[in-house]
Design brief:
alpha/beta; Rossmann fold; six-stranded parallel sheet; 44% helix
């Protein structure tokens, strides 16, 4: 099968979205399919051909077109006044990318074109005009819900009003393409329900993000059981808001009573104002790190204080595969078939976070038990090749 994947971000540096995209690219290729991965190269993301495994280089073409997506107040204001398209989407409209995409479609014959996330849908008309391939929309999240949640957390009335308008525009964009694509692949059952409630009638397959389980089995790193940690993109507002909430409501109390515990924070693109706010006693801020898996393995309890967002967190699955105790809000753990206190810890209030940390931080046996159960959940539900095979069978059925 010849597959074209289109993503609005390059594969480096890795984050939840491009990890989910590139993992499926590699899995398709491992199953014997030819994959052309076309990405938009932005000020945040680039491509690295060296990330393609040597044994798969003959099966994967990695291509990227640079576009300017850097936000500015002037552009935001002009969009708000003169356009009905959400600014988040308008940033990914590029004549250069459109021209290159049309050339690829004219020069190649694809069986399936898989659109990764909402914004590649902006090129749906060109794809439909220049290709007879099956068009699949892989929905990484319900985008408008993220901004609706962020708006709810804002206190500035002007910002709150703008973000609510932005959320409504994104919702309109999400609904615009429903039933236009041939098939849809939501990333969680909760997200699938959104499309069904919007009268989506095209064939639907709920398919989570996956991981390469073998990548985690031989990592030899000693664990510090008296540590908690956070890892995630620090330029993403839901992460910023959740982290600041955790420090203010949970960490200050934990640190006051447990001076022997350190809180490690890793993540890229933290703005200066955030670096200042997270500068507290016994918080070690590392910034962007070279080896995320070693960082995760070396620490004890992973904190996921997420109160807005959608989709599924790949970092939680990676933490589970590394036998970590994950302490997450119920929203943060969406899309994962967990059992609370068996393979994950769920906390939605500050007292729940505090109680879980106080109990488990000094209990190595319980940490290991939950970590072992988390590992079993990860290998049974999130194996890349299993997921890719399900997707290929789904496509074959609908071609």
């Amino acid at each position: 099968m010849n597959i074209l994947q289109i993503s609005n971000k390059g594969i480096f540096p890795p984050d939840g979205g491009n990890i989910a995209t590139f993992n499926l690219t590699k899995s398709f290729a491992s199953l014997g399919h030819n994959v052309y991965l076309l990405t938009m190269l932005t000020y945040k993301h680039s491509n690295k051909t060296e990330l393609i495994p040597k044994e798969l280089k003959h099966k994967i073409i990695l291509d990227g077109i640079s576009i300017n997506t850097k936000p500015s107040i002037i552009k935001i204001f002009k969009n708000f006044i003169a356009s009905k398209l959400p600014y988040n989407a308008e940033r990914f409209v590029s004549a250069k990318f459109k021209k290159h995409l049309i050339k690829i479609l004219n020069d190649n014959k694809f069986d399936v074109i898989q659109l990764e996330g909402l914004y590649p849908l902006l090129y749906f008309d060109e794809i439909k005009k220049h290709s007879k391939a099956l068009i699949a929309y892989r929905s990484h999240n319900i985008e408008h819900n993220i901004w609706k949640g962020i708006a709810k957390e804002k206190h500035n009335i002007v910002v709150k009003v703008y973000l609510n308008i932005l959320s409504k525009r994104i919702l309109k964009l999400e609904k615009k393409y429903i039933n236009k694509y041939d098939v849809i692949l939501p990333i969680s059952q909760k997200d699938a329900l959104f499309y069904k409630n919007c009268n989506c009638t095209v064939p639907l397959l709920t398919t989570t993000g996956g991981i390469n389980i073998s990548s985690f089995d031989n990592l030899k790193v000693q664990t510090n059981y008296n540590s908690i940690f956070f890892i995630g993109a620090l330029d993403w507002q839901p992460n910023q808001n959740g982290l600041l909430w955790f420090i203010k409501n949970v960490w200050v109390k934990i640190n006051k009573e447990n001076k022997n515990i350190n809180f490690y924070i890793a993540g890229r693109n933290a703005p200066k104002w955030l670096e200042k706010k997270i500068s507290k006693e016994n918080i070690i801020y590392l910034g962007e790190i070279d080896d995320a898996y070693s960082f995760i393995k070396s620490n004890s309890i992973m904190i996921v204080p997420l109160f807005s967002g959608s989709g599924m967190r790949i970092k939680i699955i990676e933490g589970m595969a590394l036998k970590k105790v994950i302490l997450s809000t119920s929203l943060g753990a969406s899309g994962i078939p967990y059992t609370n206190k068996k393979d994950i810890l769920i906390a939605d209030t500050k007292s729940e976070f505090i109680n879980h940390i106080n109990y488990y931080i000094n209990n190595k046996i319980q940490q290991n038990t939950i970590g072992d159960n988390a590992y079993k959940l990860a290998i049974n539900n999130f194996n890349n090749l299993t997921i890719a095979n399900l997707v290929i069978n789904f496509y074959t059925k609908n071609l």
